[in-house]
Write the structure tokens for this entry.
Amino acid sequence: MSEETKAYEYLLCGHLTGMVHRLRKIPADKFDYAFAPPAPTPRILAVHAWQWLVCDRYHIAEPDAAKHPRVPEPPHDQAELCDALAGETETWRALIRSLSPEKLDEARHQFNEPEAAMTVREFVGHMVQNCIYKHGQLATIYFALGLDGTEPYTAPFPNPIYEELLGR
């Protein structure tokens, strides 16, 4: 496995594992809850990540999007949806480990659109970016629900750490 694919695996699968861990801890009565109408719910974040993982995997496996099966409907049950996302994480882990430098360079077109030229590498990058973003959105919900402590969030800015290090 190349250093590049190790990095993809670490980033994508690490964030997905963390996301699934947090999703499993969301109370059932908050799984479809949004703090404001335009905000996503934990379910929407899970479904969005899962369906795009499936879709981009289709694009990597088959360049012609007309030959792709439709993305399955997500499980409704919270635990089953978390299991599906965890399963897709492991499917991507195996996929990433199988990608050679030559495969990463192969050309694709998202949904066969001529102006949407991408490489397999870019599809992997799309999933890394998308899942980090979804995990970040979920982390905000997780904090807001008090699942990571009940004290107000205090960002660990670097300068106070430097000051402590230097004994000031």
Q: What stands out?
A: The helical segments are 3-25, 42-61, 78-98, 101-104, 120-144, 158-165.
